[in-house]
Amino acid sequence: MASPPLAFQLHGDVAIVSGAGSQLSGEIGNGRATAIVLARQGAKVALLDNNLEAAKETKKLIDAEGGISEAIQCDVTDEASCKAAVEKTVELFGAVHILVNVVGIFGGRGNAVDLDLEEWDRGMRTNVTSMVLMSRFAIPEMRKQKRGAIVNFSSVSGLIGGNPGLLYTTSKGAVVQLTRAMAAHHGPEQIRWISSFHPPSNKT
């Protein structure tokens, strides 16, 4: 039986996916699912995750389908780690055309009166600053190719609010505005920006 036609072609493109080892209880995580789909469409995929073993599990799934990928350990909250991951991707595959920023945490419940401020700072850096850091190093590589696409994962909670966790709702709303601002900055360079929305959840 012939394989169904590809919905879109990414042969020759190189993609970076943060949180590529993500998995939920009994389910596949957004990062892992995204990486697999990109590989199925022909992209070479750099699988970034702070948990290298989880990224390697994603690579096994891609290998089984004949795709091309490489697992790279990366802490997306650390600037040096982000820089090294992008450099490693270019070393392996020669370019960067696509960046998908998936990493995100729920950050617990709590209102402005009783939330843990250290947890707040950590969550904002994970959910928002990480996207700036990864973009900081991916954009110069996209400029070399005179094109690029960046997808920032947000949530419906970032649009409608109402989530029990102040951090999650606030950070996901910030992602929407971050994406709009970056689109205005880099659209003229043929670098496209997209916010991807998933239903409200305790994890991304």
UniProtKB/TrEMBL annotation:
<dbReference type="InterPro" id="IPR036291">
    <property type="entry name" value="NAD(P)-bd_dom_sf"/>
</dbReference>
<dbReference type="InterPro" id="IPR002347">
    <property type="entry name" value="SDR_fam"/>
</dbReference>
<dbReference type="InterPro" id="IPR020904">
    <property type="entry name" value="Sc_DH/Rdtase_CS"/>
</dbReference>
<comment type="similarity">
    <text>Belongs to the short-chain dehydrogenases/reductases (SDR) family.</text>
</comment>
<dbReference type="Pfam" id="PF00106">
    <property type="entry name" value="adh_short"/>
</dbReference>
<keyword id="KW-0521">NADP</keyword>
<dbReference type="GO" id="GO:0048038">
    <property type="term" value="F:quinone binding"/>
</dbReference>
<dbReference type="GO" id="GO:0006633">
    <property type="term" value="P:fatty acid biosynthetic process"/>
</dbReference>
<dbReference type="GO" id="GO:0016616">
    <property type="term" value="F:oxidoreductase activity, acting on the CH-OH group of donors, NAD or NADP as acceptor"/>
</dbReference>
<protein>
    <recommendedName>
        <fullName>NAD(P)-binding protein</fullName>
    </recommendedName>
</protein>
